[in-house]
Amino acid sequence: MLAAADETRPLRGLARIMVKTMSAAWTVPHFGYCDEIEMDGLIALRDRLKPLAASRGVKLSYMPMILKATSLALNQYPDLNAHIAADASEVTIRGSHNIGVAMDTPRGLIVPNIKDCQARSILEIAQELNRLQGLASQGKLSEDDLAGGTFTLSNIGAIGGTYASPVLFVPQIAIGAIGKMQRVPRFGLVTVDGPNGTPVQEEQVVAKHIMRVSWAADHRVVDGATMARFSNQWKAYLEEPMSMVADLR
Ligand code: CAO
User: In the structure, which protein residues have their CB atom closer than 6 angstroms to any atom of ligand 1?
Assistant: First the structure.
């Protein structure tokens, strides 16, 4: 078969914006940090909340709960919800948690943000995510939907893959990429009958739902220890979702 003719395409519109933003991001010294999260508790919570969400006309994926956990963790690590000045002379800690969600659309990558996640319930976040997803798929997001993001999550696992190396969305200083949730073997404690018929706990290989997260942060202003502590808190919320209730305001 003959090779097809070469084709040169101009980079315009969203593609042009991606050239500019990603080139700017690559000048920032950043570091990566990964961890894995056991999602069985969150799966059970979503199963319970899904009918309630549906009765209010809301489609509930895992993202709204992940976004709420992010906002609750940012309450404890507010320095990560920040913008850095172009000349790196100052950092502005942002009061609102306007968390961007990277979206794969027919026109390319676009990152609208959910305003004030700190003040929204999980179902309100879900409702807003539904709205943004609907507009993004039709190419109808407003400038306001796209402006003012303070932190970003990219659920690349919705398409596939476990780890990623996300690129900062400057002037934001941190971003997280979420991998595909998978059922995999892990060690866990199982209750079995002991010698006298009394229940005892035994370590066995058990099935767990695992989701990986890959964070990237601007190493000029964020140190690895802060990112690790933030990630630990975020992981704790997702693995024990009832703990989110304790910190809701
Ligand atoms: N692991 C397992 N299942 C996942 C998943 C994951 N990481 N992410 C989504 N799913 C599931 C959802 O729970 C949903 O299942 P149900 O039908 O049972 O509810 C289904 O897949 C479809 O989810 P969705 O994609 O419609 O919704 P979402 O809220 O999870 O994600 C969005 C929304 C916009 C983040 C996603 O659609 C998307 O566009 N992801 C791609 C992001 C991207 O391109 N990042 C790269 C940026 S750098 O170039």
Answer: 61-63, 101-104, 109, 129, 133, 154-159, 178, 180-181
Q: How far is the CA of 198 from the centre of ligand 1 (A)?
A: 44
Verify whether residue 223 is a known catalytic residue: yes
Rg (CA), the chain: 20
Assign 108 a pLDDT band (cuts: 50, 70, 90): confident
What do you get for the CA distance between the two ends of the chain, in Å? 65
Q: What is the pTM of this model?
A: 0.95
Q: Is the pLDDT of residue 107 over 90?
A: no
Q: What is the pLDDT of residue 249?
A: 85
- Pocket test of ligand 1: the residue of 46, 155, 172 to mutate, having most ligand atoms within 8 Å of its CB, is 155
Nearest alpha carbon, ligand 1 atom 49: 109
CA of 158 to the centre of ligand 1 (A): 3
